[in-house]
Specification:
globular, alpha/beta, 855 residues, 19 strands, 5-stranded mixed sheet
């Protein structure tokens, strides 16, 4: 289809553009500061991203669905345009934040070109949306925004939000798109995360333009971005299922995609790793539209949308390469010839690659080889034997539950539809490609050393909203003339597979506290006042020594630096990531030496120490975590030496000390004994039982009470001894309670676990329960244990209310696992899985409550 000839631009368009440019100038000059912050951010988003994006739409093509669905493409093209401007600012030696001012000039030039050229936008022929579909999509957009606004963003210290907000804050202060010192003052080039793109810079410019703190900007942006994500899904749905498909896809993204609204991509839609998926989907839709109605405008639009995706996150390159590469192979298999569609796709792909190649080359040259031991370790894998592994299927389950079964069940009927519809072929080939890459041991063996745990994100490529948008209209058409048993069975399977996610979504929409209550307990905003004090009263750019979670929040809400980040966070290029965590642990150890603290203070240039006791519950971390007892002991240690550690903030549960190096150098008292460590005396304990090489051996487990009712608290102490020094790593202790199944039921070992679970579900009670914890709560790292010591590891658990009464065998095992655990194939089928430890005693669970039980 050729591009239509130029038409006169309506005066309303010219007036709207002029008004937008004036708003941009007003924001840049600070003349609109009296407006509410949320309105200023909405205006900044409109003039910085959407206004130039629509200029490119005018110069290029409309998506399927026309102007109704065009905001999604305008957003993607606006992101690409601003990425180019950020790179240009760097080339000119300008700070990123200068875009807040001179971006209005760039938009004016762009719009001048669009207006001079006139209305020549190409529109691909596609089914009309119709009033019913438009109403359904409009309701989905409204629900998306209202739901995100009502539930709020995911600001938890177990999420990536502090990482991203801290990066945006540092961009604002340095003007650099990839600051080396986002968290650490001493990181150097290794501090720049090679995975991150230019979206953080655009968020920084939005913050500057709207006059908002990065935390406020990051929290409010999902309300604006979420509807655009829905529109991308609707465009794909229109191609695969017509107007009904567009409406179904919009609601499918809301209700079932990414794990329902309980953990939906909508609340994380400003994360680059999440935003890249709808941006890449927009590029794919443009390619599919171009295959149906080739035009130069659509081809260049596809390339522009691809640039927006790739510059947002490096994962965009994998999404497009796998999705479009598999589509090309599917076309060849379908047509068995190098025909017009194959040539068209190859040409469009070459243009996309050429446009994105300079950026990918820049990132490759600027990125060092991955050196972070936490990131580099294989993780999130399922070992299938012979040293070969696949991506753990648990990742697929967490992403979409039972809905994943719809993909293999749909492959054959999709192939039939694909003969006439490239969009249906894309649903087929992209899902097959994910299966072949993620679950092929040979492919994983090649890719895992290069991309690491990013392999787990391959399951995000599965276009579930598109598949649902294809399935429901197809089944409706099949059942309309005469319902058949096969058609009804297929509809039943689809409904059953989607029902759990739909139920979860509706539950969260009805009562957001289902997710917000737990997130509130893990929010760093609980100590926001203390961090605000630190930002305002400590000299700028201090290096603060604190626990991993508090350290995570300091760059998020202040201009200061820290010594370490928690667990999996931080740059994969940082060779000292694990060392930083262990140094922080040892320096703040209440039972450590002053020599060790002095060493860490000197190594990182520490100027302040922050101790935090505001955790609603002990954080679940991999290496060590703050506890109330740790806070009290660490504070008492520092308070004994006020000349070295001057208290500058002390509301009681969050204490900040200024470190005085000269006084610290004079401290020489010996380290106090650890209350949970006793000297090893031969013959005083049972013979230690070793589990795995390199792990401590277990001498004894003591439980009390030995008989408990459901709901009772059981306490235990495991006594460990390291036969040799363990390597620094992530360790946890699993304590498991097993009871024989009643009635002599003994399933074969190779199928024992699923058989037991089915048996338990049928009876409505469990015959296994357990708990896992950091050894000694992380207060003493396993890599520090010595052979001459016995370490008393205390823990407690509440007996679940749904377990069967009876006698339980107690087993204990210490496990060394990365952040995303690796499993064996047998762990899914055998009851003796990787958590099956050594027998250490028994516990009787009573059918009735005991008098005077411990709560």
């Amino acid at each position: 289809m050729s591009v239509p000839s130029a038409a006169r631009v309506p005066a309303a368009v010219v007036a709207g553009v002029g008004f937008g440019l004036l708003v941009h100038l007003g924001l840049a000059a600070g003349l609109l500061g009296a407006l509410p912050g949320s309105l200023r951010l909405a205006l900044a988003f409109a003039v910085l991203v959407m206004l130039p994006g629509y200029a490119w739409v005018l110069l290029g093509a409309l998506p399927p669905g026309g102007w109704w669905l065009s905001p999604a493409w305008a957003f993607g093209l606006g992101v690409a345009w601003n990425a180019v401007l950020v790179v240009a600012a760097g080339a000119l030696g300008l700070p990123v934040t200068a875009l807040a001012g001179w971006g209005v000039g760039a938009s004016a030039v762009l719009w001048a070109a669009a207006l001079v050229r006139g209305l020549r936008t190409a529109s691909a022929p596609s089914p009309g949306l119709g009033r019913a579909a438009l109403v359904a999509i409009g309701l989905a957009l409204a629900v998306a925004s209202l739901h995100v606004a009502r539930v709020g963003p995911m600001i938890s210290y177990f999420s990536d939000a502090p990482d991203h907000i801290g990066t945006v804050r540092r961009i604002l202060s340095t003007g650099l798109p990839f600051p080396h010192d986002a968290y650490f003052r001493d990181a150097g080039p290794a501090g720049a995360d090679p995975r991150k793109g230019l979206w953080h810079s655009q968020v920084a410019v939005l913050s500057r333009l709207a006059g908002l703190d990065p935390l406020e900007t990051w929290s409010a942006l999902p309300v604006l971005v979420a509807p655009l994500v829905v529109l991308d899904a609707a465009a794909l749905g229109l191609l695969v299922g017509g107007a009904p498909g567009a409406a179904v896809a919009a609601w499918a993204l809301l209700l079932v995609h990414g794990g329902s609204t309980a953990a939906n991509v909508l609340r994380q839609s400003v994360y680059p790793s999440r935003l890249v998926d709808p941006l890449a989907l927009g590029a794919v839709v443009a390619v599919l539209a171009d295959l149906g109605a080739p035009s130069r405008a659509r081809r260049f639009t596809a390339a522009g949308l691809a640039l927006g995706a790739v510059t947002t996150h490096v994962h965009g390159a994998f999404v497009l390469a796998i999705g479009l590469g598999s589509l090309g192979l599917g076309l060849l298999l379908r047509d068995r010839a190098w025909g017009a569609e194959e040539k068209r796709l190859a040409g469009t792909g070459a243009l996309m690659a050429a446009l994105c190649a300079p950026w990918m080359l820049m990132r490759a040259l600027a990125s060092l080889a991955p050196a972070n031991a936490i990131h580099a370790e294989p993780q999130g894998l399922l070992w299938v034997g012979g040293g070969l592994a696949v991506v753990s299927p648990g990742v697929l389950w967490e992403t979409m539950g039972w809905a994943w079964v719809l993909f293999p069940l749909s492959w054959l009927p999709l192939w039939r539809s694909a003969r006439a519809n490239p969009a249906a072929l894309y649903l087929l080939t992209s899902s097959v490609a994910v299966a072949l890459v993620a679950f092929d041991p040979l492919a994983v063996a090649v890719l895992e050393p290069r991309v690491g745990y990013l392999l787990m994100r391959l399951v995000w490529l599965l276009p579930l909203p598109g598949l649902v948008a294809w399935a429901f209209p197809a089944l409706a058409a099949r059942l309309a003339p005469r319902p058949s048993a096969r058609g009804l069975a297929a509809l039943g399977i689809v409904l059953i597979a989607l029902a759990p996610r739909v139920r979860d979504s509706l539950q969260v929409m009805a009562d957001p506290r289902v997710v917000t209550d737990s997130e509130r307990r893990t929010s760093p905003l609980a100590w926001r006042d203390a961090l605000a004090w630190m930002d305002g009263h400590l000299p700028p750019g201090r290096v603060v020594l604190s626990d991993p979670i508090t350290s995570y929040s300091i760059p998020m809400m202040t201009r200061h630096y820290v010594v370490a980040m928690p667990d999996q966070h931080g740059s994969p290029n940082d060779p000292r990531a694990l060392t930083r965590i262990l140094d922080t642990r040892d320096a703040l150890d209440p039972y450590g030496t002053w020599e060790r603290l002095r060493e860490v203070v000197a190594r990182y240039g520490v100027e302040a120490i922050a101790l935090n006791d505001r955790f609603a519950e002990p954080p679940r971390l991999d290496y060590w975590a703050p506890r109330h007892e740790w806070f009290a002991a660490a504070r008492a240690r520092l308070d004994r030496h006020p000349a070295a550690f001057e208290r500058v903030l002390d509301p009681g549960d969050f204490v900040v000390y200024a470190v005085h190096r000269a006084a610290l150098d004079t401290l020489s008292e010996p380290a106090p004994p650890r209350p949970f460590v006793t000297p090893f005396r031969s013959g005083a304990l049972p013979i230690a039982r070793r589990m795995d090489a390199g792990l401590p051996a277990l001498h004894r487990l003591t439980l009390w009470p030995r008989a408990a009712a459901r709901g009772d608290t059981v306490r235990g102490v495991a006594e460990w001894r390291a036969l040799e020094r363990a390597r620094p790593a992530s360790y946890f202790v699993a304590v498991r309670f097993d009871q024989d199944l009643p009635g002599g039921f003994r399933p074969p070992a190779w199928i024992a676990k699923p058989a037991r679970k089915l048996f338990e579900r049928a009876r409505g009670e469990r015959f296994r329960f357990g708990t896992a914890h950091l050894p000694v709560g992380g207060a003493y790292g396993v890599d520090e244990w010595r052979p001459e010591e016995v370490v008393r590891d205390s823990f407690e658990l509440v007996v679940p209310m749904d377990v069967a009464a009876g006698d339980y065998l107690v087993r204990v095992r210490m496990v060394r696992q990365p952040h995303y655990p690796n499993l064996r194939l047998g762990d899914f089928f055998r009851d003796d899985d990787f958590l099956a430890g050594v027998p250490c005693g028994s516990l009787t669970v009573q059918a009735a409550a005991r008098a005077g039980r411990v709560r």
